[in-house]
Structure prediction request, 330 residues.
Amino acid sequence: MSLLKITKLNVALLAAIVLPLAASAQQPQSEQGSAQPATQPAPAQQAPPAEKAAVTPSRNAPQESHIGKFTGHSESGKQLFYRYCWGCHGFRGDGNGENWLPPGSWLEPYMNIQPRNFVAGTFKCRSTPTGTLPTDQDLYNTLVRGLVNSNMPSWITLTAQNRADLIAFIKTFSPRWQTEKSGDPINVPAEPALTLNSIKHGQELFQKLECWKCHGQEGRGDGPSASTLTDSNDQPIRPYNFTTGSRFKCGVTNRDLYKIFITGVDGTPMPSFADVVKPEEAWDLVHYLRTLQVTHKSPELTLWMSTKEGAAIVSAQKITGTPTGSGIKQ
Prediction:
């Protein structure tokens, strides 16, 4: 008999002897040594049903945007975002990208604004009431226009479809887009005729509403509160300096400036005045603020300088600092 056959036989005999003994050893024995059935375990107490967890919207759920005849898709916008935008806005869209220069950097006096935190879902430039989400068109306009005095350029070089796709992807970062709709755009009434009375009334409102506390008496962004202001990210922020600026952050027209008054600039100390001023008063403010832009030859400035009072005020203006108010000595 070969060695292999002997080994197989030994293994088979060992299994036949050991396995039955091991099985019988596990059975409880009575005092007389007879096998008894194993004691049945007590039934486990049933746990109370767990409360249904609240359903949290997925931050990255697919989104669409609708701008005119264009429909944007987040999947297409994702590729564009990680090619062009994440360096400033961050990989997660939280505004902490590698290219952001925090306070204390060499560019602080000129561009001291942190990139938008898309996760928070708070946007400055909107046509919708304060506290509400912007429309897709609002976001589209920002991509086309860019944000003056910041690192945010105009993306006019992209196609309209590219911009629509980017907007759709931006909306995936914040759960607000899953549970809220965009606000309804405010009504902007027709601009009334420009008159000296309108400018002078706007001047009175500038004092009455205490706009000077932030923007300064001459609109230079050097008011007594200017150095203490912070935005929603707890970053220092300066009021707009009208004397050196020709563009506003959220547009260039009188209509854009009117919307800033009524909607506010969310995420900044600039509030909405929708419940404070009447539409005609808001237009008076627009006309007066244009006269503070002494380097921008607007119809309002021309009319104001045609008066002795206006000419004296404008000639006394001291142009210092940058349009964001940075560099202004307190």
Q: What stands out?
A: The chain has twelve helices and two strands. The radius of gyration is 35 Å. The domain at 64-179 is CATH 1.10.760.10 (Cytochrome Bc1 Complex; Chain D, domain 2).
